[in-house]
Design brief:
The complex is a heterodimer. By secondary structure, chain A is of the alpha/beta class. In chain A, 33% of the residues lie in helices and 24% in strands. In chain B, 76% of the residues lie in helices and 1% in strands. Classes of the chains: A alpha/beta, B mainly alpha.
């Protein structure tokens, strides 16, 4: 075995090939994990991350390649064997038994017994204290685990892996169901694990987290490993490029300069506790990006603009006139529209059909006789069809219920609803979340065309690449305030990421 | 069509057809079987009776549909009918004209609907608790006014609504058809009806599309109150008497009809035409059983079973089609 100057890897996989019928899931993938490091594994859905993890866990068998633990080649044929080798896997859906105590969850299936050979809770609680470097769950160990917060459940499971003497802990999208404060808590736990020499494999698609926590990053794309980068050489743009497989500047449609006319002014807008004293301007034809991590107050801010929530204080000025917006109805009257993040919950009416969804916010266009509130089916079709064409909605007909459309087409229906209502200020909250790649670029093109034709656009996104690629100007939000304003063309991805993170992720959470 | 794939498509087509038209098929089958087996069922007198029997239930159920459509419901419909009938009867006996009495009676129903709507849509009480409470309050008031005794001796002219007919068709049947037609048009072809449908589909998204959800739900309760009041008028006018318990047993039947309606044509959604089919099923079934001399005390049990089946099928068939 070649001796190396680098720290010895605990776990190493080499040249893994896995074929599924009709498709190669992994193609000669190498991956290694060293003690005391956090190694992030990233890639788009379907890239092969989870197949790799399942092979290491023993759920799948590789067709070719080898797995080495402490330099010794191992055949892992089932999860029990991977556990015995010190490999632990924590999934998004935490494997907690709700009505069992915390201590029982930690020793699940391997309960210590007392002299009489009975399972003893008292002994178990004592033994938790003997687990070296166990995390403080922050709750009574005799309490049923269902009463724990999600983060405490995480710690319980991590302690379980420690009780099993695991040395490599795989975490799959750990922050998906955590609040912001809990994410910090988890990160502190991970740092603690690192210090004690454990290795963490961190699987996530949230780039800001990966950059905050990882020592090394490995990118997998289309069943292949694209590369591994150290913390020192981590360049966000480069990693995105690895993931997307193309240059960033080729990804987004070109920008057109915004007009001079300011159409929206926001002054000192506040709503406790999420939004504090936010002020900004928006010009016609401008795409204003709002960046910031989940919980920074960005969604809450646009909900105030749209009247979905009521502001505590502050002013909204549209085309020079101060306006009162107390409901979405008011906002729509002032030609403001919101394409919400929660599309199925807030964007579309699933059982209604395409034309009914598109015309829902502009029923006055469908009147049959004068001002009488009677709908004309032919006008309905006539009004809806152009928007189906313009946004290229793929549906069998105008009469198809939107619940049968794909996510991308549903998003186009929401957008069409607002185009139909002649919105002048269009707010997008995570416009491309849960949408396939093709539809994503169609949405980018639509946003660009809208801006070119004078619509003012506000775009919230967690995808920093998307924000930089689309926006003329970028506001960075943190803790409910605007922390920075950047020019889209001059923004460096790494700099933007720093700005999103510095204030919040690294500092201990502020308690109110 | 011989391969397995084709077969499975065919089978699901059959299920979808049965899901959508199953209730209509059942209705037609019932009518056919009863007509063949029991000459009494298809007699002119019985058809006239059927027309009469379904009128009041239809009016109740159509009002109820306005609430159910938006995910609300109204337990106070029978109580509203009772108090309306009692107010009108007391006023007529006190010497007020029939039209004045009727207008005041309808206002009473609308005001109760308004109260329900305010409490449920604006205050945010649960529809169940709120309308159960108002039902109790109103029935109590009705009892207090009548001292628990039926009011008799209403003017014969008032009876035209419930007992008269036009060219052999009962007046109350005509009234029902007009009301159903108006509500059908309202729900299907007006902006307000469209907004209500959106609320029923997804109240959150409706609000985020600029629809005033609270106001429309209030309107649903107003319509339910209005229909219940009209049903109360037809009831009292038919028997020329009023009592506090007069409308209460229609509640279960109205629910049954509406849920059968939700298992018809547009699965999982409440709509007027479906409700009308539901009313027909309930009325024909009960009528057929009566002619078969099934003892009356079984009918409640059978109605309950029909309601359960309807709930089951509206949900299950809906899920099947969505998957």
């Amino acid at each position: 075995m070649p001796a190396s100057a680098k720290p010895e890897a605990i776990l190493e996989v080499k040249g893994i090939i896995k074929d599924f019928p009709g498709q190669r899931a992994l193609d000669r993938v190498d991956f290694d994990v060293r003690p005391g490091e956090v190694h992030a594994l990233i890639g788009e859905n379907g890239a092969g991350k989870s197949t790799l993890i399942k092979i290491i866990a023993g759920l799948y068998q590789a067709d070719q390649g080898e797995i080495l633990v402490d330099g010794v080649r191992q055949h892992i044929t089932n999860p029990r064997e991977s556990q015995a080798l010190g490999l632990a896997f924590i999934h998004q859906e935490l494997n907690i038994v709700p009505h069992l105590s915390v201590a029982e969850n930690i020793f699940l299936g391997r309960y210590p017994r007392n002299r009489l050979g009975l399972v003893s809770l008292a002994k178990m609680v004592k033994m938790v204290q003997n687990i070296s470097d166990a995390l403080d769950v922050g709750a009574d160990l005799r309490m049923p685990a269902e009463r724990l917060s999600v983060i405490a459940q995480w710690k319980t499971i991590i302690n379980r892996t420690l009780a099993q003497n695991s040395r490599v802990i795989f975490m799959d999208e750990p922050t998906a169901s955590l609040t912001y404060a809990e994410v910090n808590d988890l990160f502190r736990s991970i740092s603690h694990l690192k210090e004690t020499g454990k290795a963490i494999v961190y699987i996530s698609h949230r780039m800001e987290e990966v950059f905050n926590i990882a020592d090394r990053v490995t990118v997998i794309k289309d069943a292949r490993k694209v590369g591994t980068a150290d913390k020192a050489n981590m360049d966000l743009a480069k990693i995105y490029q690895m993931m997307l497989g193309r240059e960033l500047k080729d990804t987004f449609p070109g920008k057109f300069p915004p007009q001079d006319e300011v159409c929206l002014e926001v002054k000192n807008l506040s709503r406790a506790p999420a939004v504090h004293n936010v002020s900004f301007n928006l010009r016609r034809g401008e795409v204003l990006g709002i960046a910031g991590i989940v919980g920074s107050g960005r969604t809450e801010l646009v909900r105030l603009l749209f009247g979905a929530d009521r502001k505590d204080s502050g002013e909204i000025i549209i085309e020079g006139r101060k306006v009162d917006i107390n409901s979405p109805e008011d906002a729509i009257r002032h030609r403001i529209a919101l394409v919400p993040e929660e599309r199925r919950r807030e964007g579309i009416i699933l059982p209604m059909d395409v034309k009914q969804n598109i015309t829902l916010a502009s029923l006055e266009k469908l009147l049959r006789w004068l001002k009488l509130p009677v709908l004309s089916p032919s006008k309905e079709r006539g009004v809806a069809q152009p928007f189906v064409d313009a946004t290229d909605i793929k549906s069998s007909s105008l009469n198809q219920a939107v619940e049968y459309l794909s996510g991308g087409n549903q998003q186009k229906v929401v957008l069409s609803k607002w185009l139909c209502s002649e919105a002048k200020i269009l707010i997008f909250d995570e416009p491309t979340r849960g949408i396939d790649v093709g539809a994503k670029f169609a949405i980018y093109d639509l946003i660009r065309d809208l801006a070119r034709n004078g619509t003012a656009v506000i775009m919230i996104s967690s995808d920093l690449v998307e924000v930089v690629g689309m926006a003329h100007r970028i506001l960075v939000m943190a803790q409910g305030e605007i922390k920075a304003e950047l020019q889209g063309d001059k923004t460096d991805l790494g700099e933007l990421l720093e700005l999103c993170l510095t204030k919040e992720m690294c500092a201990p959470p502020k308690r109110k | 069509m011989t391969n397995g794939n084709g077969k499975s498509i065919n089978r699901s087509d059959v299920f979808i057809f049965l899901g959508r038209y199953g209730t209509v098929v059942i209705l037609l089958a019932m009518i056919a079987i009863f007509s063949i087996l029991m000459p009494a069922f298809r007699s002119g007198t019985n058809l006239y009776n059927l027309g009469q029997q379904m009128s009041i239930l239809s009016i109740f159920a159509a009002g109820m549909t306005c609430c159910l459509k938006m995910g609300d419901f109204d337990l106070s419909i029978g109580a509203i009918a009772a108090i309306t009938g009692i107010v009108i009867s007391e006023m007529m006996l006190a010497g007020y004209s029939i039209p004045t009495s009727i207008i005041v009676g309808i206002l009473v129903g609308v005001v109760v609907g308004l109260l329900n709507g305010l409490l449920v849509a604006y205050v945010g009480l649960s529809a169940f608790v709120c309308t159960l409470a108002t039902m109790s309050v109103i029935l109590g008031m009705a009892m207090a006014i009548t001292k628990g005794i039926s009011i008799w001796g209403l003017p014969e002219t008032y009876g035209i609504i419930g007992r008269g007919d036009l060219a052999g068709i009962p007046n109350r049947f005509i009234l029902m058809i007009v009301l159903i037609a108006i509500l059908w048009f309202f729900h299907g072809f007006t902006t307000t009806g469209r907004r209500m449908e959106a609320i029923g589909g997804n109240a959150n998204a409706a609000r985020m599309s600029g629809i005033n959800v609270e106001f429309n739900r209030l309107l649903g309760y107003l319509l339910s109150g209005l229909c219940s009041a009209i049903a109360g008028i037809v009831l009292t006018s038919t028997v020329l008497s009023a009592s506090a318990l007069q409308g209460t047993h229609y509640l279960l039947d109205a629910f049954g009809a509406c849920f059968i309606g939700a298992a018809t044509l547009r699965i999982g959604q409440f709509h007027i035409l479906g409700t009308f089919v539901g009313v027909l099923i309930v009325v024909v079934a009960i009528n057929g059983l009566l002619i078969l001399m099934v003892p009356g005390y079984y009918t409640d049990m059978i109605k309950g079973i029909i309601l359960l089946l309807a709930i089951f099928f509206s949900g299950v068939a809906g899920r099947f089609i969505k998957s």
